[in-house]
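Repro case for the chain-ordering regression, as requested:
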Amino acid sequence: MADFDLVLVLPATALAAFALLTLLFAPLFRGQGRALGGVGLLGIAVSAAATARLWPAAGAGARIATAGGMVRVDAFGLFFTLVLLAIGALTVVASFRFLEREQADHGEFYALVLLALAGMVVMVQTTHLLMVLVGLEVFSLALYVLTGLTRGRARSVESALKYFLLGAFSSGFFVYGLALLYGAAGSLDLVRIGAAAASDPSPMLWIGAGLVLVGLAFKIGVVPFHHWIPDVYQGAPTNVAAFMATATKTAAFAVLLRFLVGAFGPSHEAWAPLVTWLSILTMTVANLVALAQTNVKRLLAYSSVGHAGYLMIALVCRPEDGVRAILFYLVSYAFMTLGAFLCAAAVGRGDARSEPGYDLGSWAGLGWRRKGLGVAMSLFLFSLAGIPPTAGFLGKYVIFQSAMRSHEYLLAVVGVLNAVVAAGYYLRVVVAIWMREPETEEEPYPVPVSLAAVLVAAAAGVLVLGLVPGPLLDLLGRLAAGLV
Amino acid sequence: MEPRLVLAVSAVLFTLGVLGVLLRRGAITILMSVELMLNAANLAFIAFSRQAGTAEGQIYVFFVMTLAAAEAAVGLAIVIALFRLKGTTDVDEVSLLKW
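-- result from build under test --
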């Protein structure tokens, strides 16, 4: 094939190759999952190096297509690839000891994380919806299995089944939407679909686009397609929940940006009201329900739904402000959510039947017994609540600022009100950590070095982005130009 | 055959699939209903492909078929794992987490 350049697809193929390598070695390293984790980490490093090598060529705003236009390398996609790889690397390192503690030290875990990453990378480095579908399915299938990883625990397997059935259902909508878009535009390339939407939009095109949006909204967890999120995040092993909450949302928002703001950008008036109301609904429902949660994993799950709502505010804004705001928010969201879930993983005591360690009560007084962990969790929660000088504060600031500049006052007001409500439940956890007497005599788990290192890295990310956001914001402003 | 007619059949199949997912309670039946939705999309791809006179849509069908097979493999594995633990695949019986 003349136009197939292996170097351009290396970020995804390296991940897939190392995933297969990990699977190959898995039987030889039973009970030594960490060795395989090392192989996985190497795969992520190779993929990151391949991505960094492409950066100078694509960074100048060029769009390099290969494989008959199925893969597209541009700065936007490469940036998302790097964010996803960072999330993957942090998850892998944090999982070394955690999986041993949960008696789920399967080497396959690392293979599945790499496969999920490969799917996501395929998804963000294309403007062809067929490739989006392939990437979406590859990472979803890997995540279904990861959710059920602790297969002796009914909770884990049940949530895997629930995630699978609802996920497959939503892919059904996505695929049918693709069929209709193909019929209406004669192609699945977003450039051609965008042109068809601008020149002669048929009802079939709109129905197809709507079905595709349903599929994406499910992955992101937009109300009313969010019902699976709390159950699945609660049932899944906590390190998997951390990965799902951050990486899935990042990849799906990349596609959503290319689809809505890129291809359907010219028909902004047609979809903006819908997204506005979905955003308001998502924020409000998630934050109100989160107030009533006593399980930290469920609370963080609802919080992640709420953050999807904030992100959608910026979808409606003028692209020159909104896209930059979404990109910045996604990066800061990744650090703080990953950190908060992994703190929960460090604390969570549980067995096959119940997981009392994730109840708010077992966090009481934790800060005085495990000071570092208490400080880290408080920092992540402050950031999620949007309190300065953290990344979360700046993320919210940029989003609300872009809403004001685009004259979306309703969204800005609802967003700020929601941030106030949300602060209530985040601070409740902080209060439990520092100001309540411990409820049990049981000594909390020691924090393993690998997990502590990841927590420090995430905390550093939250603080650095909060204190010196300038360089990243400048970079993101330039990326926003090259959506489709 | 008239592409319009094929599209109508595909829409009916898709609706049946959606209703199956929403109304049936057995995990396997729900999986079969999802397969019906995917195959309805395949039929639509072929009809549009014929209408446009290009082979693109027919190639997409192979992708969707592969994905459906992978999905079935993973799905059935999860169903078996759950059956071993709970002795049932009825989604209403699976109630540790609210459905």
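Ordering looks correct now. The mean pLDDT of chain B is 89.
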